[in-house]
Amino acid sequence: SLYGRANRLNREWFVDAAERLGLRSRAVVRMTDDLVDRAQQWPHRCDEIGFTTRQTELLSGLLTSRIGTLK
Fold first, then answer.
1. What backbone torsions phi and psi does residue 29 show, to the nearest 5 degrees?
2. 50 in helix, strand or coil?
3. Would you state the pLDDT for residue 6?
4. For a 10 Å CB count at each end of the chain, is N or C smaller?
């Protein structure tokens, strides 16, 4: 847990946490944007891992959801 949150972390939460730690929000926004840009392909590559079809679907959905919260 960081500042009372352990899950459902979103873009605004990361910016707020960074400001509490004395970091510039602009830097966190840039890093988050870079991460989101790079992660866009991850859900589409889940089938390369070798999980079952159901596990692959669940992982792909989770990644898509988490990436969406950081946009």
1. -60, -45
2. coil
3. 77
4. N
pLDDT at residue 9 tops 90:
no
Per-residue pLDDT tens for 19-30?
999 999 999 999
Q: What pTM value is reported for the model? A: 0.79
Q: Higher confidence at residue 57 or residue 14?
A: 57
Q: What is the dihedral of CA 16, 3, 33, 58, to 10 degrees?
A: -140
User: What is the token pair recorded at 13?
Assistant: 């939460």
69 contacts: CB under 8 Å, gap ≥ 6 = 8, 9, 10, 11
The alpha carbon of residue 1 and the mean position of all alpha carbons in its chain are separated, in whole angstroms, by 16
- Distance of alpha carbon 51 from alpha carbon 35, whole angstroms: 24
Task: Select the more confidently predicted residue: 7 or 47.
Answer: 47
For 1, other C-beta atoms within 10 Å of its C-beta total: 6
47 DSSP β-pair partners? none
